[in-house]
Amino acid sequence: MNGSDRRGPVVSAIIPCLDEEDAIAGVVASILRHGVAEVIVVDGGSRDRTVERAGAAGARIVVEPQRGYGRAVQAGIAAARTDAEILLFLDGDGSDRAEFIPALIAPIVEKRAVFVHGSRVAGEREAGSLSLPQIAAGRIAGLLLLVYGVRFTDMSPFLAIRRDAFERLGMRETTYGWNLEMLMRVAAAGLPSVEIPVGQRRRAGGVSKVSGNPIVGLTAAWTIMRTFTRLALSLRRERHP
Hints:
Strands 3-2-1-4-6-5-7 form a seven-stranded mixed beta sheet, with helices on both faces. The relative contact order is 0.16. The radius of gyration is 17 Å and the shape is globular. The mean pLDDT is 87. By secondary structure, it is an alpha/beta fold. The chain contains eight helices and seven strands, in the order βαβαβαβαβαβααβα.
């Protein structure tokens, strides 16, 4: 599928990024090989050559001076082409397999879903690609989401959604809780969703901002649990004012 083809949808890929100079050029190139119309790298203040290498590989650069995963993602969405019909999200460390992009987009193009979630815990995973806390967090999130009548097996950053549907979700989270908020809002809204196995590779370089740092990992876990509780209460009020 070619994002520049008039017969196909325009797909904008958004990558929040911080200090990923070893991986980002390869990530951008691999995404563009799959016909995505544009790759937006949102840099959160990298102190290495991430911006230079991403730009040289063909990405459009957006600088978000305030830290926060969700804030970076929202900055990328705001910068996306106005004619983009599908928003695609993935990480910049090389762990998400770009070869699954057509499979993520296909259910939306075929009108079988408006949201597609790529499960890292399903499919082939390289040894050491996911830490036990990451796997556990995804499983727990999936079980919690059963209250909305859906089942996800992970809390993955590798996903796609139809833009018009996204704009109705009312996303607010600015931290690592953004992926969980997306799943919760998609589930609560009853959007047609599909989960596909995408597996996971080990990161191509650098250090994980979460699993590679125990303190940040604990902070992210706390943020995720706080986000679920807060958003569950908020969604309940929205449904039963």
